[in-house]
User: Fold this.
Amino acid sequence: MGWYENAVIYQIYPRSFKDSNGDGIGDLRGIIEKLPYIKSLGVDAVWLSPIYKSPMKDFGYDVEDYRAIDPIFGTMEDFDQFVSKAHELGLRVMMDMVLNHSSDMHKWFQQSKLRDSKYSNFYIWRDKVPNNWKACFGGSAWTYDKTRGQYYLHSFLKEQPDLNWHDDECRHAIFNEVRYYLDKGVDGFRLDVINAVGKDPDLRSNPFMFGETPRPYDMQNHIYDRNTGYTHEYIRQLRKVIEEYDDRALLGEIMIQGKGQMEQSASYTGKDNDELQLCFEFSMVKQRINARNLRAVAGKWYELCSLSKGKTPCWVLSNHDVPRAITRAGNNEETARMLAVYLLIQRGSSVIYFGEELGMQSKSFPRKELQDPLGIQYWPFFKGRDAERRPMQWDFSENMGFSTAKPWLEPNYTRDWRHLTVQGQESDSDSMLSLYRNLIKLRKQRSEISQSDAVFCDAVPSGVLSYRFVNAGRCTSVLLNM
Ligand code: GLC
Ligand code: CA
Assistant:
């Protein structure tokens, strides 16, 4: 059994977790300092959002050098120490690999601007804008570069040019960056927007579609810039790379449109289970929170990722891109407690977003305080993702113990904020934190949870979600009154 098959994974957004050197930004030494806390939750693995050298146009999702740690976060020695300390504590480490695009400051892109360089085909260049593709972060997906005298493709910011996975040398270079971290003993990767890597080689225009929002990007059916057959092939190749090593795992971020395309997300595990071991399914994040929706999504997810198919469902409710689940539920703590059960008492792997275990809330910022380029671009229709990136709420001291300096984003001082800190919850057996710890313990004690798919019971009053796990004469029933 691979470690990822029954794992609780803790996502850290490094800028916001713990600042060790008083510059207002979280860093690796801060994370190292807090490893015992992470261990105390009972989780199995830590996933770090990107910490590579970066101009930070998208806070690290624009990588300038995959083999360097950004000085804001520390050094490669700090990273190595982080990995070995985590391993000493029995925690696995997952890195966030951003392989669909790099930063425009990456040496590959800088050189790619020169047509006769060996990196010439590492990006996607055309003389004229060849199609209607839009950048997810606004505007056309094509930007003109004067040096090269051509347009290049970028699915996100113009400072995030898309890598050309069709080029064998480019793909091999990418795989070598992955091997660099495998060699360091990293246990797995969260793969950023991995369903976008294989673009249609003919760069055909996406057909029109009525989208969930009126922004041009959502008014296209993304069949040519995402989810092509090539992507599946390249993911199979990447899977072979990690299989050169023992017991490593790939968890893919699958971009979806509308309220979800669960078959499509599941398809990235591979027909022969030879692609990603785990995929995020964001229907859980996009649907309104109620018993009926949770039932529908979980039921289908178990079908698509069943034991009999040899697959592992992955569960997630919050991350650094969306308002926290508790906030989507009107900041209602009782609902959040039920969501904790739903997240953690499942077969497969469950991903906790830092602070979720405290009931931390998302709170948006006034325009002048925005940091997220997406919020700056789309204000006021979209207020960006700063709200869910506010600092971790540790204790009653200055800036809730996150930093001694002014934090890059202000902590969320709600009226009862003390009650939403680790210090405020640590010794309270009824706190959200204690609930998370107890649920993780329970999930480990009861083997039937990891050894059977949930069976749903629909003969319950509306507003109630009911399912159970039965295996080898043992049974765990879950009843959630939403
Ligand atoms: C993913 C990341 C998001 C980032 C985007 C572009 O969706 O989760 O934070 O902005 O990819 O890399
Ligand atoms: Ca710092």
About this structure: The chain has 15 helices and 16 strands. The longest strand covers residues 464-471. Residues 58, 61, 98, 156, 192-193, 253, 320-321 surround alpha-D-glucopyranose (ligand 1) (CB under 6 Å). Residues 115 and 295 are 54 Å apart (CA to CA).
